[in-house]
């Protein structure tokens, strides 16, 4: 079953020059392709819509501040089981727990700045794709 998912390369990935490395890992996965990509700085409305479910939690304000601290690369990846696969490629949020070979295992330094976001379910992917790429059909 072909799926689409949202991937965000967070400000720390952009600052550290890891765009090509991370995009390349997605592109090299057989059967996956990138169908949309753009760099942008996220505004407060977009961040609130994206992370609103976490509002009121202790990590919400630092997360929003971090995500607004510089440009991100937003992309759409498409392919067989791509939602599950990109999350495995990203690795767990904690870079110490992330296996070597995953983005966070290879490049992660701290949990709060964890390089990459990938939709966690079909429902999340649909909601997030509408937010970041409203023109997609």
Structure description:
The protein has 137 residues and is α+β, with helices and mostly antiparallel strands. The two termini are 17 Å apart. The mean pLDDT is 96.
SSE blueprint:
Elements: E1 2-9, H1 11-15, H2 19-28, E2 33-40, H3 44-51, H4 60-67, E3 72-80, H5 82-90, H6 103-107, E4 116-118, H7 122-132
Antiparallel strand pairs: 1-3, 1-4, 2-3
Number of strands: 4
Q: How many H/I helices?
A: 7
Radius of gyration: 14 Å
Strand content: 15-25%
- Tertiary shape: globular
Tell me the series of helices and strands, N- to C-terminal. Answer: EHHEHHEHHEH
Strand arrangement, major sheet: 2-3-1-4
What fraction, in percent, of the residue positions are helical?
A: 40-55%
What class would the helix/strand composition place it in? alpha+beta
The biggest beta sheet is recorded as: 4 strands, antiparallel
Mean pLDDT reading: 96
Distance between the termini: 17 Å
Low-confidence stretches: none
Question: What key attributes describe this structure?
Answer:
alpha+beta; four-stranded antiparallel sheet; globular; 137 residues; 4 strands
Short description:
This protein is 41% helix and 20% strand.
